[in-house]
Predict the 3D structure of the following.
Amino acid sequence: MRSKVIILALFLMATSCTRQPADADAASAAHDTLTAADQVALADALTPVSDASSDALAGDVSSTDSSGPSVYELMGKKPGIKMFLDVFFKEMAWSPVLNFYLPTADSAQMAQLKIHMTDVLAIIWGCSECGYAGNLDMAAVHKGVLIADGEWNAFTGLCFEVMNEELLLPNETIIAAVKALEVYKGQVVDTTSLYARFGGRTKVRKVVGQLFTKYIQADPQLKARFAGAPQPALADLVTDYIAGPVLGQKYVQYKGKAPATAHAGMKITDAEMAIFLDLLGKAMDDYTVNPQAKGELLALLAKQGQALVGL
Ligand code: HEM
Ligand code: HEM
C-alpha cells in the first residue's frame, strides 16, 4: 500500500503541470510527459490485470478483487463516470499534449464522445450488464489516430490527477481504475507511424523550441534571418506544420501560410538550409529522439526545404 501511495505521488508530480494554455512554450509542455524513470516505476505499479482481447472488452472486466466491488461500482456507476468525464475533458482542453485531439467543446461530436466513453469505461471498469452501441475493438477505433507513447502517459496521468485532486477518490479506487485502463495501452498507442515514433507533437514542440531559442540565436547567419520573427508563435506554427502536414497527424490543425508563400522573397541559400537542418538535428539530439525517426524526419524536411531555396 505504502509503495502505491508513493507511486501515486510520483504520478501526480509528473502530471502537475497539465493546466497550461494551448500555446504554452516547450519548457512547460515538457512537464506533461513522464520521464523514463517515472515510466518504469509506473509500469511496475500498473502491471495489467490481464491481456486485453482486441475483439471485445467484455472479457476484460476488472474489479479490485473478484469478491469485492468492481471499479465500476467504486467509481459511482454511470453517474460517477459521467462526472469524471465532464471534469476530465475540461482539463484535457488545457493540456497542450492532448487538447488537439478533442472536438470543439460544445459540438455534437463532443456530446457523442462523452456518451461513448461513458459506456466503454463502464465496461472496462467491470459493469457486466452494460452495453455499447459502438465498436468495442479499441485497436480498430484508434487505428490511424497515431497516439504517441507520451500522449498515452499524459492521458492516464490526467485520469489520475482528476480522480485524486478533483473527485477526491480513495487511492485504491484510483489505482484500480488506471490499472484497468493500462490494459488497453497496447491497443491504443501507435508504434509504427513516424509521428508516434518521433514522440508526438510535444516532442516536436520541444525540438523546435530548442532550435529557435538555443541554436538559431547562437548562429550569426540564421539569427539575422529570424530577427523580428514572432516568438514563440513561430515555434508553434513550425511545430504544427511538422506534426500535421509533414508527419501526418490529422488532428493537429496547421493554421499558418503555405511554406512557399511564407518564404517567398527570402532568397534562402542552399548553405542556409543546410545549417537550419543541421541545427534541427542538434536540437533533436538534445531531446533523445529515436535515431531512425530523426533520420526519417530530417530526410523529409530536406526534401521540402529544397523547394524553399531561392524563392
Ligand atoms: C483506455 C483508454 C481509451 C479508451 C477507453 C478510449 C475510448 C474511445 C472510444 C470509445 C472512442 C470512440 C468514440 C466515438 O465513436 O464517439 C474513441 C475515439 C477516439 N479516441 Fe480514444 N480512448 C482511449 C484512449 C485515447 C487516448 C490516449 C487518446 C489520445 C491521446 C484517444 C483519442 C481518441 C480519438 C482522437 C478518437 C476519435 C477517433 C476517430 O476520429 O474516429 N483515445 N476512444
Ligand atoms: C525545411 C525547412 C523549413 C521549414 C519546414 C520551414 C517552415 C516554416 C513555417 C511553417 C513557417 C511559418 C509560416 C507562417 O508564418 O505562417 C516559417 C516561417 C519562417 N521561416 Fe521557415 N522553414 C524552413 C526553413 C527556413 C530557413 C532555412 C529560413 C531562413 C534561413 C527560414 C526562415 C523563416 C522565417 C524568417 C519565417 C517567418 C516569416 C514571417 O515572419 O512571416 N525558414 N517557416
About this structure: The chain is about 60% helix and 0% strand.
